[in-house]
Amino acid sequence: MQRFESKVVLITGAASGIGQASAYRIAEEGGRIACVDIAADAAEKTAATIRDNGGDAVAFACDISYCDSINSTVTKIVEHYGKLDALCNIAGMLRFDKTEDVNLEDWNRMLAVNLTGTFFMCQAVLPHLVETQGYIVNMASTAAHGAHAWTAAYAASKGGVMAMTRTIAIEFGRRKVNANTISPASVETPMVDLARTQLPEGADMSLLQKVLPFDGNRPPSAVANLVAFLASEDAVHINGIDIRIDGGLMA
Fold first, then answer.
1. Helix, strand or coil, per DSSP, at residue 71
2. Residues in CB range of 202: below 8 A, 6 or more apart
3. Active site residues
4. Strand segments (E) across the chain
5. Which among 210, 115, 129, 127 has a CA at the least distance from the CA of 163?
6. Model confidence pLDDT, tens digit, residues 107-127
7. CATH code at 37?
8. What's the domain count of the chain?
9. Mean pLDDT of the chain
10. For the segment 65-79, what is each residue's pLDDT rounded down to a tens digit?
């Protein structure tokens, strides 16, 4: 199946985790991948792996918490590939803090990366996606639905992503651009592994029972399969929704 033959897909967070897995998955189907990440060397490794397997990928360093970096990166990608067919906003950050301990600096950083960066990346690519009748896939989280302790800032940022994406879906649906979100849970990624080592001191660990899915943790590739679907023409009649991929956690 070659759903992405001749298609150009911008993937943020492509250096690791779900972003990297999505880059590999879409490249397998013929997609030309713009691997975007703040970790330039790691993004280049992702792109090099795709090229070594016969694919087309270029790495672009970008800090999505800064609009200038976003706009410059999108310009470079379009100059290189000539167009954009899909945006997969997967870059993000996670940390656990007791609600009473959240400080303004950490709150602002969380929103800058997860919400503000996602929005302005969408804004930058939308004119190009209108031309190609393209697709946006934004990464939310089951934390936006509830049942996640110590994630006040993270949950707020991901809830904002869901609401913002629905607005884009309505505004751009008649211009043939589809925008949807994915809410994963219990995915084994470097971001989650790091956050687990930084749980709040003295936290009630029994609360973790509320975030354990029936079928255990899954690799990033499980989410990448859904990313590829929503970024493809198979999802042409899906717009403005959030899909949970959580093993039944929120059922």
1. helix
2. none
3. 154
4. 8-12, 32-37, 56-61, 86-89, 135-139, 178-184, 242-245
5. 115
6. 999 999 999 999 999 999 999
7. 3.40.50.720
8. 1
9. 92
10. 999 999 999 999 999
